[in-house]
Design brief:
Length: 801
């Protein structure tokens, strides 16, 4: 039988599970004779399971009673669960064993001893039965698959149709019919060409032919279908060839997805991108887009012009490939920072443009993310601020020039809000003028700064709010009590878009000092002219008087001698004549004329008159020298003579209150100085000393003491004026040289004497002036002036030490 029809048996593999070696060997010979491939034998269930897993047998012959009584049946059930048909073998015919075999539902049962023909029939029958089962299962699966296909075909969310190789619709689902706006029955038998857009037919190429020819497995394309109402539906169509067993094409399966909304969105997106591209290209600022790796995926025309490369050649490049290594690394670091942190990024960087010029760009950049928040890239806009920075630099330079000009001319600037008259800002010169730091001035009103009128009255309101000011003279009182003469001008101007008042204030201490010196010089000039006239008028009669007095003194001496001779002769004659009456008459005449008194006192009177005339001459000479000391150039001056002349001129100030002592070093060389100014220094200090002594000794019969000393101190002349007056209180000492400061009663002093003195000594002669004072005991002023007159000035006119 096996030799007559072995088609089924050929190449079939049979697994033998038999613990009896003899039976197993017999089975192997029989199976081989019948044309099967024998596997095994397996002496136990474990070995059999392992061989089945490795070798994949088509059928199994299993002894019911393997070493374990239940192992054969259990092994059969395990094989059956794996889809391996089982034929049991047994030599036992007991009912319980046969019942167990029946419950295992084998494909056959062979009783030992085995017969070759029975074995062939059992195996052939088991294999055919298994084949029928598989066929039935396949038919059932096919039916189920058809049912499922039909369900999917009809209920699919996409359009599905089946076509002939020529493109005629064999069947379509409802989804496709609705998609193209037709009934399904109307489409059957029609060609897809009838409902396709003509442009798509021209563009489809040979894809369908290549699909049917087997050169392509699938064809996917996007096309348009025309609806009966003229509207268009876009579809994504996937074509798959349907072939028979021989591979010949039987038809085409087409799956169509409606992508009209997507295409419309894409079209809108393209329009938007085109619009955005137009906007980007119209923008004057460079605009660009980068992917997360730093590649430029979009730039506008402005960036193209800046880089000097085409847009296409720049796309895909990174900053490292376009710019210098340093700039590329800087920009890459900024990219990483923005991608990590998000937000908006702003920074400035210097880049070279296409012409090689350095340009300063300010970048404003932001990260853009997808719907899940994952970074997708960076968009940036660059603003070229090179020109504006140049303008800013020029403006800063102009501001710096203006600042230096204002600083150079020592102009204090106060910026004031006209609405509330509050000071908003000041410059450093204004801080110096006020004697306050900026933070102490800003926020105050103008009334709180210490302004005074030119006559010293406090300023009770902000004058600038009531009337315009142009070079208005005022005074500024500092916190330390010092008074600074100023000139103020107020102008209005815009500042940061708002109207503001600008007070421009100049310190005129130097000018005031010069004015004071000019006034004193003019006064001295007037006094000099008057003194010259008086001296001229006095000198002539004084000379007459002096000459006559000298003549009278000489004549009186001669008359005295002649009278003595006459008297001696008369007495001699009277005595010789014995005329006592004559002698008595001579004695009586002398007594009547008080001749002895006249002869004794008249020479003294004449001597005193000569001394008086000499003093008058000396005073007139001192006045002439004091009032006309010289020109405006420095000359060599005998300081001791200058001191003596000044003491004489000022005698009326001190002679009733003090005695002046001179301790002058007669070996001093002349001093190169301005004689008139130096006389003014001596006069101011001496008069102040006399006033201080007078204040102390007033209402008493006592007199004070003033000592003037001159001596050499290295290369300097040292002049000291000491008095025994009231002294200077501690609180007044810092202000003693300030203009307008005085402690004297009204009408007694102007507060300008020591300010002028300080200016002359320090500024004009490069010297120094200091003082020591003890209240109630007196004060000593010490002036030092270089003999050669080349000392360096130590301050401006009117500046306090």
């Amino acid at each position: 039988m096996a030799h007559e029809d072995t088609s089924t048996a050929q190449r079939k593999r049979v697994l033998i599970a038999e613990d009896d070696p003899v039976s197993a060997d017999l089975l192997r010979r029989l199976l081989t004779h019948l044309g099967y491939q024998a596997l095994g034998p397996a002496a136990d269930a474990v070995t059999a399971m392992d061989m089945a897993a490795r070798l994949g047998p088509d059928i199994a012959l299993i002894d019911v009673l393997l070493p374990d009584a239940a192992s054969g049946l259990g092994l059969g059930r395990a094989f059956g669960a794996r889809g391996i048909p089982v034929v049991f073998m047994t030599a036992h015919r007991e009912l319980d064993i046969l019942s167990g075999v029946a419950e295992a539902r084998p494909y056959g049962l062979l009783l030992k001893p085995l017969d070759r023909f029975q074995l062939a029939v059992a195996l052939e029958g088991a294999l055919r039965l298994r084949a029928e089962e598989l066929l039935a299962q396949r038919c059932q699966d096919l039916t189920e698959s058809e049912r499922r296909f039909r369900v999917v075909f009809e209920q699919a969310g996409v359009g599905v149709n089946r076509q002939t190789p020529e493109g005629l619709f064999l069947e379509v689902n409802e989804r496709f019919a609705r998609m193209v706006g037709r009934e399904a029955i109307d489409l059957v038998g029609r060609s897809f060409v009838d409902i396709s857009h003509p442009d798509d037919l021209l563009a489809r190429g040979n894809d369908r032919e290549e699909l049917l020819a087997g050169r392509k497995d699938t064809v996917i394309r996007e096309k348009r279908y025309l609806r009966p109402d003229g509207s268009v539906v876009w579809c994504r169509v996937t074509l798959t060839a349907i072939r028979d067993e021989t591979g010949r094409p039987e038809g085409v399966l087409a799956v169509a997805e409606d992508i009209t909304d997507r295409r419309r969105a894409e079209t809108e997106l393209k329009n938007q991108l085109s619009f955005q591209r137009s906007l980007m290209d119209a923008a004057v600022n460079p605009i660009y887009v980068q992917d997360p790796q730093g590649h430029y995926i979009g730039i506008n025309r402005a960036f193209e012009t800046f880089l000097g490369v085409s847009i296409q050649s720049a796309l895909g490049l990174t900053a490292h490939e376009i710019f210098s290594e340093e700039t590329g690394e800087f920009l890459s670091a900024k990219d990483r920072e923005l991608l990590d942190q998000g937000g908006v990024q702003r920074f400035e960087v210097a880049l070279e443009d296409a012409s090689g010029r350095e340009r300063h760009l300010v970048f404003h950049r932001a990260r853009f993310d997808d719907a899940e928040g994952r970074p997708q890239g960076i968009g940036g806009v660059a603003t070229d601020v090179t020109d504006s920075k140049g303008v800013e630099k020029a403006l800063r330079d102009e501001q710096e020039v203006l600042r230096r000009i204002l600083s150079g001319i020592r102009a204090g600037i106060f910026i004031i809000d006209p609405r509330n008259l509050v000071i908003e800002d000041v410059n450093p010169v204004a801080e110096e003028l006020c004697g306050r730091a900026r933070q102490e001035i800003v926020g105050r009103t103008c009334q709180e700064i210490g302004w005074r009128y030119a006559d010293g009255r406090p300023l009770t309101s902000c004058t600038l709010a009531e009337r315009n000011l142009v070079n208005e003279e005022m005074r500024l009182e500092r916190p330390d009590g010092r008074i600074v003469p100023v000139v103020k001008t107020v102008v209005t101007a815009m500042r940061r878009g708002e109207m503001r008042l600008f007070e421009i204030v100049f310190d005129v201490s130097e000018r005031k000092a010069l004015e004071r010196q000019l006034a004193v010089a003019q006064k001295l000039e007037s006094v000099g002219e008057l003194a010259a006239g008086i001296a001229h008028e006095i000198n002539t009669p004084t000379q007459y008087i002096g000459d006559n007095l000298h003549f009278l003194s000489t004549a009186f001496a001669g008359l005295t001698q002649a009278l003595a001779g006459v008297e001696a002769v008369a007495r001699r004659l009277a005595e010789a004549a014995g005329d006592t009456a004559a002698l008595d008459a001579i004695a009586a005449a002398k007594a009547a004329a008080d001749l002895d008194f006249l002869l004794d006192e008249s020479p003294r009177a004449l001597e005193q008159s000569v001394e008086g005339v000499a003093r008058v001459t000396a005073i007139v000479s001192a006045m002439k020298k004091f009032s006309h000391p010289g020109g405006e150039d420095k000359t060599l001056v005998d300081i001791n003579a200058a001191v003596e002349n000044t003491v004489i001129v000022a005698k009326n100030e001190w002679k009733y209150v003090a005695d002046v002592e001179l301790a002058l070093d007669r070996s001093l060389p002349p001093v190169l100085c301005l004689p008139g100014d130096f006389n003014q220094v001596l006069l101011n200090i001496l008069v102040n000393a006399a006033h201080a002594v007078a204040e102390k000794v007033k209402a008493t019969a006592e007199k004070g003491r003033i000592v003037i000393t001159t001596e050499a101190d290295g290369e300097y002349l040292k002049l000291s004026v000491s008095d025994s007056g009231t002294g200077i209180p501690e609180e007044n000492r810092p202000k003693i040289f300030d203009p307008f400061f005085t402690t004297k009663e009204v009408g007694k002093g102007t507060g300008q004497g020591l300010a002028i003195t300080h200016n002359i000594v320090v500024v004009k002669h490069g010297g120094s002036i200091d003082f020591e004072s003890e209240p109630g005991l007196g004060t000593t002023f010490t002036v030092r002036i270089p003999f050669a007159g080349n000392g360096e000035p130590r301050g401006r006119a009117g500046e306090t030490p």
